[in-house]
Write a structure and sequence with these properties.
Blueprint lengths: L1 H37 L18 H16 L4 H19 L2 H9 L4 H26 L7 H21 L21 H22 L2 H16 L3 H8 L39 H32 L6 H8 L2
Length: 323
């Protein structure tokens, strides 16, 4: 009996180790998907869902859903922190991998140290997300709606902290993956607000129950599964921008602008004497400009001597080359 109990304990320990390794691999893969969602790197196009160099909002949403599922089943706050930390480390390292090129190719740092530097920076910045996940795990006893809101709020706070604290390094914020799907919200909430909406909409199908889950699944499918849905939304939201110079009812003037003649448009007859004095004054000023420059060049040595030195001829050289 003692031998059987020992073998059972070993089997349980090995099973827990395998489960932990599987969770770690899942977190890293989900974080890698987050990095790929910011800009699809391969020359593979799939309808309106994937295009080289373009963001993939649906892939970003799936990566967040996977993260929320991993956090929801974390047994402790420390386990949630480790899972979010692995996710964020893979995401950030896959986002600013170009630092390796900067340090190794152009800086001359040996490749292993350059790799370690990138991973160390990613792991350090991932601490914000690990802390957010540990705090969120305290909300697991709350209602599903509160969990969704808490996840979106804490995740956005971690994004903001990464972009502000320790001089800030906001490269690759999650909201940039949603510029096609949720970019219409940018004038009101900015990239962090877009990321918050995406986080809430991704967490809702995982955490909610019953009819609320069905509604959020349908909404997520419409936002991320229908190509062009973001453009459709942007066309129907009020325009929040106006042309430069249009504040206070004033409209910009000039060729090709609102209120001005288009290029090549016929001009009406000029009023008698209109623009004559002003035009003559402008021509006189342009004609006198060379004389002013020559006078400044001649005066430069005296001014330089009065001020206590300087490179001989530098002022004259500068004066001759200014317009």
């Amino acid at each position: 009996m003692t031998g059987m109990a020992a073998r059972g304990a070993v089997a349980r320990r090995d099973g827990a180790a395998l489960a932990g390794a599987a969770v770690a691999v899942a977190a890293v893969l989900a974080g890698g998907a987050h990095a790929l969602a910011l800009a699809w790197p391969w020359d593979v196009s799939i309808g309106g869902w994937l295009a080289p160099g373009q963001p993939a909002a649906w892939l970003h949403a799936l990566s967040l859903m996977a993260l929320v599922a991993l956090l929801a089943h974390a047994p402790t706050a420390s386990a949630a922190a480790w899972r979010a930390g692995g996710y964020a480390t893979a995401w950030l390292a896959g986002t600013f991998w170009w630092l390796f090129v900067s340090m190794h190719t152009y800086g001359g740092l040996v490749a292993p140290l350059a790799v370690l530097a990138v991973l160390a920076l990613a792991a350090f910045l991932a601490l914000d997300y690990a802390l957010a996940a540990a705090l969120w795990s305290r909300w697991r006893t709350a209602g599903p709606g509160a969990q969704v809101l808490a996840f979106a709020a804490l995740w956005t706070l971690a994004e903001w902290a990464r972009g502000v604290l320790w001089t800030g390094f906001p490269w690759g914020a999650g909201g940039y993956a949603q510029v096609e799907a949720l970019g219409a919200l940018a004038p009101w909430v900015g990239v962090y607000g877009i990321g918050a909406v995406a986080a809430a909409l991704a967490a809702a199908p995982v955490l909610l129950r019953g009819g609320a889950r069905v509604v959020t699944v349908v909404l997520a499918a419409l936002v991320w599964g229908v190509p062009g849905a973001g453009a459709w939304l942007a066309e129907r939201l009020p325009d929040t921008t106006r042309p430069a110079g249009a504040r206070g009812g004033r409209r910009p003037r000039g060729p090709g602008r609102a209120g001005g003649p288009a290029p090549g448009a016929p001009r009406g007859p000029r009023a008698p004497g209109a623009g004559g004095p002003a035009r003559r004054a402008g021509a006189a000023a342009r004609a006198a400009a060379p004389a002013r420059r020559r006078a400044a060049a001649r005066a430069a040595p005296g001014v330089r001597a009065a001020r206590g030195g300087g490179a001989p001829g530098a002022g004259a050289w500068l004066a001759e080359r200014l317009p």
